[in-house]
Amino acid sequence: MTPAPAPPPPELPCVLDVEASGFGRASYPIEVGYVLPDGRAHCTLIRPAAGWTHWDEQAAGVHGIDRQTLERCGRPAAEVAAMLNVDLAGRTVYCDGWAHDYAWLGALYEEAGLHPSFRLETVARLLDEDALARLGDARRGVIGELGLSRHRASSDARALQIALGRLGAARQD
Length: 173
Hints:
One of its GO terms (molecular function) is nucleic acid binding. This is Exonuclease domain-containing protein. This protein has 173 residues and is of the alpha/beta class. Helices cover 42% and strands 16% of the residues. It has a single domain (14-166), classed as Nucleotidyltransferase, domain 5 (2-Layer Sandwich). β4 (92-95), α4 and β5 form a beta-alpha-beta unit. α3 packs across α4 (98-112) and α5 crosses α6. The longest helix is centred in the last third of the chain and has 18 residues, at 129-146. The mean pLDDT is 91.
C-alpha cells in the first residue's frame, strides 16, 4: 500500500512591522513592511505629514533611516494606507509590537482619512506560552541565518514570519 501523501505545510501568517520616528505619543510611522502568507513582501517609506515633527536620534540609530531620506523618498500617508488596504484587505495581520504598531498605524490612517481593511493582532494569539518564550531566540536565529544586518520593516517582518513558522504558528484568518 502506498503511504498517504503528507499534508501541505500550514500557511504562514501574514506579518507586518512598522519603523517609527521614536517612541511615545508624538512618534509616527516612517516605514511599513509586510510579508504575505505566500512569502511575497513589500516595504515602503512614509513621508512625514506636516504635523509629524518628533524625531528621536536613538530610534534613527536603530533603523538607520534619516528624515531627509523620508522627505525625498517617502510616500504620502494616504498612498501608503490605500496600498495597505488593497494588499491586506480582509486579512488578520500579525505583529510582535502590537501596542506600538497599532498606535503608529492609527496615526497613518488618521492622517490618510481612511480606515484599515485588515485586522492587526499580536503574535501572542498564535503561540502558546512556551513557544512565545522562545520567539525572540527563534527570530534572532533566522536573522543570523538570512544574514540580515539592517533593522528594517520588511526584513523584520520576514524574520518574524519564518520564526513563527518554525514554532508551529499557522495562519488563522
